Amino acid sequence: MSHVKAGGTSKNTRDSQGQRLGVKLFGGQAVKTGQVIVRQVGASKRAGAGTSMSRNFTIHAAKDGTVKMASRKVRTFSGRSVRRTEVTVE
Question: Which among 21, 27, 29, 64 could disulfide-bond with 69, CB atoms 3.0 to 4.6 Å apart, if both were Cys?
Answer without folding.
Answer: 27
